[in-house]
Amino acid sequence: MSKQELEVIGQDAACCAGLSSPLDEDQAAELAKVFKALGDPVRLRLMSMIASRGEGGEVCVCELTPAFELSQPTISHHLKLLRQAGLIDCERRGTWVYYWVLPGVLDRLAAFLTAPQIAGATA
Asked: How far apart are CA 108 and CA 86, in angstroms?
């Protein structure tokens, strides 16, 4: 078997472009908290249920809890972790708590997860 080196032609630096700039230590720590919070299937479903209400939309915990075969305290714990990760916020109104996605959170996640488009590249 021959061990030849292949010359790559027509390749410029843009072909291997990654993030616009690497994360610093603080950014990585913050983003890791977000991904850790979303790394649980229950929390991911809760986030999608809340986010599906759209910009400025909110959902009552009374609508979230029946979607799971979990106790109300367990659902509250998962929602607390999403709040601590900076993904959602809430407000108590009487006996119910209403949740919404914090502005810009989904856009920032999408921007991080979207790879730069390479001219002429197809998915």
From this structure: 12
